[in-house]
Amino acid sequence: MIQPLVIANWKMNGSYAANYNLLTYLLPEIAVNRLARIGLCPAYPYLAQVGQRLVGSPVWLGAQNASAYSEGAHTGEVNVAMLRELGCEYVLVGHSERRLMHGEDDTAVAAKFAAVEAAGISPILCVGENLAECEAGETETVITRQVMAVIDQVGIDHFFNAVIAYEPGWANGTGQIASSEHVQYVHGLIRRLLRDRDPYIARELQLIYGGSVNPTNAIALFQQPDVNGALVGGASLDARAFIAICDALEQAHRHALAQGA
Ligand code: PEP
């Protein structure tokens, strides 16, 4: 069975003091006896601080973005070798906020995915329709285009260590969550797209949902067969809420194991 995964996206939040306090509450609860794999993605300036606190714990470090370039005259960019050196095991690629607010198109996202994967880091490929596309009934078209753009540019073999996060732009940070049926429908679609190219990768790849997940709505979400975890933004800044989301995922996973799923 696929290992459940929860990734915290702290976005452009935090400070040394705030991170210290959050980790002090969080780590004793999430770094023990967990069925789920848990990762934290702080902003770049805090990767070293958080990474040092994670040494010796089973919690993984991730970054929110990476450059597709390897080095040189790219002011303001951070390459994958730097992220590797800081201990990052995951990098978010193509987050809806990068696509919507920073102009990242499918080609740019695929180039970043390739750079991250080549560095031995797991790319978390974020895909999702925006509000206008959702209202126009274009969800399936958009998801198919975004997933296939990376498969076609990079190759399905390079998805072996990847994760895909379905993150509808209209649900990110808005408090508006997609229904669990809708999420299952999209995750099922992504699983089918992968299966057409490689049945093994389709069976093993972690598919997580992101968009206003909280301890209450997480329960129904995690009961869906193709939802293997969550990418959590706002609620990951609240230690109690984040722990409750991890607990809900593990409870659903134990239930599925007991049912022989
Ligand atoms: C995100 O932006 O990655 C995210 C999941 O945000 P939120 O949970 O705040 O919607």
State which percent range the strand residues make up.
5-15%
Count of beta strands: 8
- Measure the end-to-end span: 8 Å
Instruction: Spell out the helices and strands N to C.
Output: EHEHEHEHHEHHEHHEHEH
Average pLDDT level: 95
Number of helices: 11
Largest sheet: 8 strands, parallel, barrel
Largest beta sheet: strand ordering? 1-2-3-4-5-6-7-8
CATH superfamily, by name, is Aldolase class I
Second CATH tier, the architecture: Alpha-Beta Barrel
* Bulk shape: globular
- Structural Rg: 17 Å
How many domains, as an integer?
A: 1
CATH class category name: Alpha Beta
Say what the CATH topology is.
TIM Barrel
Low-confidence stretches: none
Could you name the key traits of this structure?
261 residues; alpha/beta; TIM Barrel; 8-stranded parallel beta barrel; globular
